[in-house]
Specification:
It is a single chain. The chain has 197 residues and is mainly α. It has a domain at 111-124 and 153-197. Helix content is 52%, strand content 4%. The protein is built from six helices and two strands, in the order ααααββαα. It has helices at residues 4-22, 28-33, 86-97, 99-120, 149-152, 158-196, and strands at 132-135, 138-141. The protein is flat.
Amino acid sequence: MLGTIPSRMPTLAMGAAMALCLSGCTSFREYIENGFKVGPNYCQPPAPVAEHWIDAADQRVRSQPEDLSRWWTVFQDPVLKSEDPVLNRLVSTAYRQNLSLGQAGFRILEARAQLGIAQGELFPQVQDATGAYRRQGTSLSAPSGLFSPKRYFSQWNLLNYGRIANNVRLQDARFEELVLAYQGTVLQAQAEVLHVY
């Protein structure tokens, strides 16, 4: 009985390796080619686009972007032509006193800080503290200047790099999402002021 166990070990190991390969796990080679990133290797799908826009030669098409920061002036309110534009004052007051805009702005600042923290984790870090105590001529101090590569790379390695890089992408997308939400909140506040006016 004991003599048959070692002869089955290579067969069991080969079976386990085959099961692992066929289970859908990423191979080590694909893991290296993917830049040690966890998750699928995303590729942007192809989208055929014409080289030039069909109306690019039309004289009515402007090449410079139009300033739409004061889009409500297209309504040509007679009060806007006076010296004291009421609508401009109402929109600026709504912008300054809107609590939802203030909250959205603070969320953007928080997301920017989280993005900075995530980017800071991309590189290994070491934090050491040294201290000394002296009493009656004797000195006790912690040894300093000792560098241990094992300690240096213990919490940061290439296996964690993919997780950290994905976290950076996540925080960057969250930051952009909150910026767009802020712009939508500004537009909504302006539209409500014009609707009430």
